[in-house]
Write a structure and sequence with these properties.
Elements (H helix, E strand, L loop, with lengths): L2 E12 L2 H7 L1 H21 L3 E5 L3 E6 L2 H14 L8 E13 L2 E3 L1 H11 L6 E4 H7 L7 E8 L7 E6 L15 E2 L6 E4 L3 E2 L7 H15 L6 E2 L2 H11 L2 H8 L3 E10 L2 E10 L4 E11 L3 H16 L16 H14 L4 H17 L4 H18 L3 H17 L4 H11 L8 H14 L4 H13 L3 H14 L4 H14 L2 H9 L9 H12 L3 H9 L9 H13 L3 H15 L6 H13 L3 H13 L5 H6 L10 H21 L6
Parallel strand pairs: 4-6, 10-12, 10-13, 11-13
Antiparallel strand pairs: 1-3, 1-4, 2-3, 4-5, 6-8, 7-8, 7-9, 13-14, 14-15
Length: 654
């Protein structure tokens, strides 16, 4: 008997399947079989109903949008694992008529059209699906515009799930005709360095950042992120191609030529659809005039696009001395390289900038961040912490409205020497975000601290925001992967960690991947991954701590104790020790040395990691569940977590 009902409809399709069959039939069939296996598993997990497989695709229905989206995300993440299957997914909600294994209705046709518009790794939604989940922070979405489709009466607005493990199609990749022209979109393409000195590229980067920041102040103007533009520029080396991939209406391009102390900056705006320049200008002056030139450039561009808009700047954002600004731009260039060598170079350049202009607030705030990085990551000597305090206080005295001050303050507060004051650090990061909602690093740090105190939902929302603002931020993906291990989303965690560039944050990334594989019950892979870490990286607390856990799992108490002592030796040199102490507690718990496990759990909490959900869910602590002391610890950390929840209850990440 036919059944009529409202359903969430999911179509899946393997991208390029016909071509795969032509080139390697066995591989194509294996991909189809893997697709069928994964889709079947994930649909059933969400209580969905599989109606049809058709070789390289599938059709399923669910009782709710939430179930359909969860199934789609898990399917995509699972199929990223090798051997990967390039899949696109489309979702819609509509009334359907089900007759056995056959299904009819416009809702089905719409879901099919949506799926066909996607690219490998994407999950596209209709507006009626988006409306059901728009307030769910775990399902961030991005509008792609309105499209006309064959045999569909009305234009459809499409949305893409923008989780970092999913692909958001660039407008140039989408099939279908866009009916709404989005004229208020712009990308600032990296300016060309026409100077004889290739290191003058930092001037180009500084000008592009300045223009991007100014354009972001225009109401309803969508400005492509600097990191997205850079990534596409590195791929295409062509402004029009970058703009088309980003789907913007206008691109801003330019060049900088420096000869001695003289600067010539050319800037132009181009309408991509019409294919011609709509504004251009040349700016000449000396290096000493750089601030006036930058302000004039940005205000001219803004005036052309929005005549009544005035660019506002905090007084502490720029130095008064042009040579100080030159040194500052070089320092930022080196700081962003994220290595000890470049960090020390950035420190030297900032000190030079501030000797030339002692009233440069942003310079002091950046110097504080560089010293904190040196202290927390590379060399935990008191001198770096003291220097950071001095620089931060000078920045605050000069301009207390700079967001970077509060980002640096949070980092400086949240140290072992200060007892990891979580509440104060959280307040500082929230303050930084309120001052500058586009500051991706502030969201990343907020995620770190809220995760440590058990606020995993807020940490998740902050990590999502980090990766949305800066999709190529290595530390953001690394932290997000670690967080997902603690949230129990192991497939997502593994995929995120595998996106960290090879060799980055070594050996910590490999250590976390091995832990993730262990919790996925892929023990042999986990052991092999840890064993693959080069000998030169074994003098590392993260490696030693995980090695102790693995030796305990193998029943090697003597070996576990050896690596515990190694972990202590290397860990005590660090600015924070709590993850290693947690590993030590895990090893002792596995070995049934329960009093020692309890001792190290207490140390972990005191040293800044009172993560109640992790204590609850960590499988390595199974032997402690019946211990009264352990349950007392659980209750105290739960109460502490609730106090932080109260602190953050009115803060919402948009």
């Amino acid at each position: 008997m036919a059944e009529r009902r409202l359903a969430a409809i999911m179509f899946t399709d393997i991208v390029g399947y016909s071509t795969m069959m032509q080139h390697n039939e066995a591989s194509a069939i294996a991909s189809a079989n893997r697709h069928e296996s994964v889709v079947t598993e994930q649909v059933l997990k969400e209580n969905g109903r599989l109606l049809h497989f058709y070789g390289d695709g599938s059709l399923s229905i669910f009782n709710s949008a939430t179930q359909a989206i969860r199934s789609a995300i898990k399917t995509q993440i699972s199929l990223q694992d090798e051997p990967g299957v390039p899949l696109r997914i489309g979702l819609n909600i509509g009334e359907v008529l089900i007759d056995g294994q056959k299904i009819y209705g416009d809702g089905v046709n719409i879901a099919s059209r949506i799926e066909s518009s996607g690219v490998a790794g994407s999950v596209l939604l209709s507006k009626n699906v988006f409306e059901k989940i728009r307030n769910r922070s775990e399902f961030p979405c991005q509008s792609l515009g309105r499209f006309a489709f064959k045999n569909i009466a009305q234009d459809l607005e499409l949305y893409a799930l923008s989780h970092p493990l999913l692909t958001v199609p660039l407008p140039g990749d989408l099939k279908g005709k866009r009916n709404e022209e989005n004229e208020r979109t712009i990308a600032v393409i990296p300016f060309r360095n026409l100077s004889d000195d290739p290191e003058q590229i930092y001037y180009c980067e500084g000008i592009c950042e300045d223009i991007t920041h100014a354009l972001s102040q225009i109401p309803d103007m969508k400005v492509a992120s600097i990191s997205s533009v850079k990534n596409l520029w590195n791929k295409f080396k062509n402004g029009d191609a970058v703009g088309q991939q980003l789907g913007v209406a206008i691109i801003c391009e330019g060049s900088v030529r420096r000869v001695g102390d003289q600067l010539r900056i050319n800037v132009q705006l181009s309408d991509l659809e019409e294919g011609y320049h709509i504004w251009s200008s040349q700016f000449n002056g000396s290096v000493q005039d750089i601030f006036e030139m930058q302000d004039k450039i940005t205000q001219n561009i803004v005036n052309f696009l929005e005549p009544d808009q005035t660019v506002t700047k905090s007084p502490g954002e720029k130095p008064k001395n042009s040579q100080a600004y030159d040194a500052y731009l070089q320092a930022k260039f080196h700081f962003n390289k994220r290595s000890q060598k470049h960090n020390l170079k950035a420190m030297q350049l900032l000190e030079r900038a501030l000797s030339l202009d002692p009233e440069f607030a942003l310079g002091y705030a950046t110097l504080a961040r560089v010293n904190i990085e040196q202290f927390f990551t590379y060399d935990p000597k008191e001198q770096w912490e003291k220097r950071a305090y001095v620089a931060l206080e000078k920045a605050r005295a000069l301009d207390e409205d700079l967001a970077d001050i509060y980002l640096a303050k949070g980092n400086l507060l949240w140290t072992r020497e200060n007892g990891f004051p979580h509440a104060d650090a959280i307040k500082a990061y929230i303050h930084a975000i309120k001052k500058d909602p586009m500051l991706s690093e502030a969201y990343n740090e907020l995620s770190r601290v809220t995760w440590h105190v058990g606020l995993l939902d807020l940490a998740y929302a902050a990590s999502l925001k980090t990766t949305q603002l800066d999709p190529y931020f290595t530390d953001g993906h690394f932290r997000f992967g670690w967080l997902e291990i603690h949230r129990g989303n192991l497939d997502a965690a593994l995929a995120l960690l595998r996106r960290v560039p090879e060799g980055s944050l070594a050996p910590s990334t490999d250590v976390l991947i091995s832990q993730c594989l262990l919790f996925m019950d892929r023990k042999e892979e986990a052991f092999n991954r840890l064993d693959s870490i080069p000998q030169s990286l074994h003098e590392d607390a993260d490696y030693c701590g995980m090695k102790a856990v693995f030796q305990a799992l193998k029943g090697d108490g003597k070996g576990a104790e050896f690596w515990i002592q190694e972990a202590i030796k290397y860990g005590q040199r660090l600015g924070h020790f709590h993850h290693i102490t947690c590993n030590i507690a895990e090893a002792y718990s596995i070995l049934q040395e329960l009093p020692k496990a309890i001792k190290w759990i207490r140390y972990t909490i005191q040293d800044g990691f009172p993560c109640y959900p992790w204590l609850i869910s960590n499988p390595c602590f199974e032997n402690l569940r019946e211990q009264p002391e352990f349950n007392e610890i659980l209750e105290s950390t739960r109460v502490e977590m609730e106090s932080y929840r109260t602190l953050t209850k009115d803060f919402i990440i948009e």
